[in-house]
Amino acid sequence: MKIFSKLFIKSWFLMSRPPFHIVGILPFALGAVLAYKVTDNFNLSIFLLSVFALIFIMLSAYYNGEYYDINEDKLSSQMGKNIFSGGSQVIIRKMLPGKFARIGAYISVFFAAVIGLILQFYYKTGVLTIPFGLAGMFMGFFTQLLPLDG
Predict the structure, then answer these.
(1) Contact indicator for 61, 144 with CB cutoff of 8 Å
(2) Domains of the chain (ranges plus CATH)?
(3) What is the rounded CA–CA span in Å between residue 141 and residue 87?
(4) Residue 118: is it exposed, middle or buried by C-beta count within 10 angstroms (0-12/13-18/19+)?
(5) Among 52, 66, 69, 73, CA closest to 136
(6) pLDDT tens digit sequence for 41-75
(7) Which ranges of 80-128 would DSSP assign to H, the alpha helix?
(8) Among 19, 49, 85, 150, which is most exposed with the fewest C-beta within 10 angstroms?
(9) For residue 41, with 0-12 CB atoms within 10 Å meaning exposed, 13-18 middle and 19 or more buried, which class applies?
(10) pLDDT digits 0-9 by tens, 67-105
(11) Rounded distance, CA 83 to CA 137, Å?
C-alpha cells in the first residue's frame, strides 16, 4: 500500500471521523470563552495547542474504536449501518489494515502527551493541566477496553 496514495489518505480521513470532533471542540471552546469572561485572560497559543491535544485524544478514541469494534462494526454493516453506528468501515472494507488503527491510537496519545507537557512546563498553565490531561487521555484511549455489559 502506497503511503501517500489517494486511497490511503482518504482511509485515514474517514477513520478520523472529522464531523464528530465538533462534540469535543465546541464544549471546549465554550469553556475557554467562560474562562475568559471570569479571568479576563486569553492566550491564543494555549487555546490552539489545547484544541490540538483534544483532537489527538479524540483520534485515539476513534482509532481504538475501529480496532476493537471490528465484530460489532461488521454486524452493524449487515443490520443497517448509520452515521452513529458501525464505525467508518475502513478496516472492514480492508482499506487499511487493523494494526494501522492501533498504531494511530498510540501516536495520537503520544502527541497529546507532548502537547500536555508543553502546556504544563513551557506555558505554565497550572497544576491541573497534567491531571486533567491524563484523565482525558485515559478516558479517550481506554474506553474501548472497558466492558459495558456489567
Answers:
(1) yes
(2) 6-143 (1.10.357)
(3) 16
(4) middle
(5) 52
(6) 999 999 999 999 999 999 999 999 888 888 777 77
(7) 98-121
(8) 150
(9) exposed
(10) 888 877 777 777 777 777 777 888 888 899 989 999 999
(11) 24
